[in-house]
């Protein structure tokens, strides 16, 4: 029996470890019925897979990835940030490889090879900077104007600093969640 998005999220919030879970599209024919297209997630990942800074060991991540036409939509929700981080912004990016014991194992940022080298870095990569609220939660959503090829990316990393728009750098890697793009 296929697992619905609601059931997967219920299991995730109940503490069931779901490293990655493909979810079937639930309403592909919405446009045929005259409804606006929905963002049906085809990937749900919860984590983090690795915590690289023990100060963030209480953080939990939920990631939903959907494809809509020729776009990739990524939603990241993080909970459990330490109280002292309220108001801070953390850079978060899609990385090329899966997480590993060492922070560098996730490799470089994913860069879409189909987008012109002259385009701004923000258009070539997938960034999800998060601003932490008073309750320790943070959310980010981005729409990338291309599709991520199968296995061209493998994780989302949360960094210690906001993303520098010129270099894409965001400081130390704090957390990493595997996402089977």
Automatic annotation (TrEMBL):
The keyword Signal applies. It comes from Actinomadura litoris. One of its GO terms (molecular function) is metal ion binding. One of its GO terms (biological process) is superoxide metabolic process. Residues 69-178 form the Superoxide dismutase copper/zinc binding domain. InterPro entries: SOD-like_Cu/Zn_dom_sf (IPR036423), SOD_Cu_Zn_dom (IPR001424). It comes from the Bacteria. The lineage of its organism: Bacteria, Bacillati, Actinomycetota, Actinomycetes, Streptosporangiales. Belongs to the Cu-Zn superoxide dismutase family. This is Superoxide dismutase copper/zinc binding domain-containing protein. Keywords: Signal. It holds the Pfam family Sod_Cu. Residues 1-27 form the signal peptide.
């Amino acid at each position: 029996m296929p697992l619905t998005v609601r059931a997967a999220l219920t299991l995730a919030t109940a503490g069931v470890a779901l490293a990655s879970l493909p979810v079937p599209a639930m309403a592909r024919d919405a446009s045929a019925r005259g409804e606006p297209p929905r963002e049906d997630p085809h990937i749900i990942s919860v984590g983090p897979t690795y915590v690289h800074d023990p100060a963030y060991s209480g953080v939990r991540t939920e990631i939903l990835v959907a494809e809509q036409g020729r776009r990739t939509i990524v939603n990241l929700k993080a909970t459990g940030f330490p109280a002292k981080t309220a108001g801070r912004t953390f850079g978060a990016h899609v990385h090329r490889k899966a997480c590993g014991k060492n922070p560098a194992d996730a490799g470089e940022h994913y860069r879409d090879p189909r987008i012109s080298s002259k385009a701004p870095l923000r258009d070539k990569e997938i960034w999800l900077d998060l601003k932490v609220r008073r309750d320790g939660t943070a959310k980010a959503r981005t729409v990338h104007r291309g599709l991520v090829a199968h296995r061209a990316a493998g994780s989302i990393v949360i960094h210690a600093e906001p993303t520098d728009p010129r270099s894409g750098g965001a400081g130390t890697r704090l957390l990493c969640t595997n996402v089977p793009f």
